[in-house]
Q: What sequence folds into this?
């Protein structure tokens, strides 16, 4: 039985109030399986993003977006070459940004939040059992 090639994590980036254009583009490049030099400028990074995503179907996750201009000023051109079916998922607390196809998230029940936290911390079932002493701290994190 042939082993399948691991799928890289989807490109993602955080676009909070104090985000860096070059870091955001660099995160997308790394998420798409590319490499970049942190000293590179936006004008050098945009074509790298475009080249990596051109013709490929992708899901781009932009977390904590505070400025709608990120799309028009930074990402529209480099992403437009993606294959049909590509998607951009945006999370924001700014309702002015979320103007179409809004899905408001509800809080998870605490136990589901704990389970998700364990998965994101890459704990398997055995490690989760061993981490029960951390559950009090984890539940405080989940409740926030």
A:
């Amino acid at each position: 039985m042939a082993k399948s090639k691991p799928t890289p994590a989807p490109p993602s980036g955080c676009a909070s109030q104090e985000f860096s254009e070059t870091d955001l583009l660099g995160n997308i490049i790394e998420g798409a399986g590319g490499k970049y030099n942190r000293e590179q400028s936006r004008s050098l990074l945009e074509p790298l993003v475009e080249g990596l995503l051109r013709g490929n179907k992708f899901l781009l996750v932009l977390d904590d977006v505070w400025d709608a201009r990120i799309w028009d000023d930074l990402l529209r051109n480099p992403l437009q070459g993606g294959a049909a079916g590509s998607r951009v998922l945006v999370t924001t607390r700014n309702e002015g940004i979320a103007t179409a196809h809004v899905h408001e998230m509800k809080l998870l029940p605490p136990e589901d939040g704990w389970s998700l936290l364990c998965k994101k911390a890459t704990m398997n079932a055995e490690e989760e059992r061993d981490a029960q002493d951390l559950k009090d701290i984890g539940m405080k994190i989940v409740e926030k």
